[in-house]
Design goal:
Elements: H1 2-18, H2 21-25, H3 31-40, H4 47-59, E1 65-69, H5 79-89, E2 94-97, H6 107-112, E3 115-119, E4 127-132, E5 135-139
Parallel strand pairs: 1-2, 1-3
Antiparallel strand pairs: 3-5, 4-5
Helix pairs in contact: 4-5
């Protein structure tokens, strides 16, 4: 009988101590402020990149192929983040990586792209369509 009571007390203590009390306050917080904080979290290191991609989206059409050129030249050390963020922000367009995990450079994608979105790096030759937020959108063909 004592063992059951001790087990029940210990179980109750574990539940009380491990419960996330902050979760209980979520319905009473300002949801608009939380939504803004969560939306900007992926861009906390590079807020200009999000704004640049929004401008690229305005200047291009669905179906356009856009190669992403950023200073980070290794997939696992930042290029993948920039590429996936661009894929999300430029939904409807064909976003082409210029760096692959298996291959350091993907020259075929550069040749296949109609546009190159170069952010904080010198763009390749082509017609400059837009310059904003540290980036340049270049039309290749």
């Amino acid at each position: 009988m004592i063992q059951r009571a001790a087990a029940a007390v210990l179980f109750a203590a574990i539940v009380v101590l491990c419960f996330e009390w902050g979760v209980m306050m979520l319905p009473f917080r300002d949801r608009h402020a939380m939504a803004q904080a969560f939306a900007s979290r992926p861009d906390r290191g590079y807020p200009d990149y999000r704004l640049f991609l929004a401008d690229v989206r305005e200047r291009t059409q669905n179906g356009d192929s856009i190669a992403i050129l950023v200073p980070l030249r290794q997939w696992e050390y930042g290029y993948s983040d920039a590429y996936y963020r661009a894929s999300y922000a430029l939904a409807g367009r064909e976003v082409l990586p210029l760096v692959y995990p298996e291959h350091p450079h993907a020259a075929d994608n550069l040749r296949a792209a109609k546009y190159v979105a170069a952010w904080r790096i010198r763009p390749p030759a082509g017609e400059i369509v837009m310059q904003s937020h540290g980036g340049v959108l270049v039309k290749r063909r």
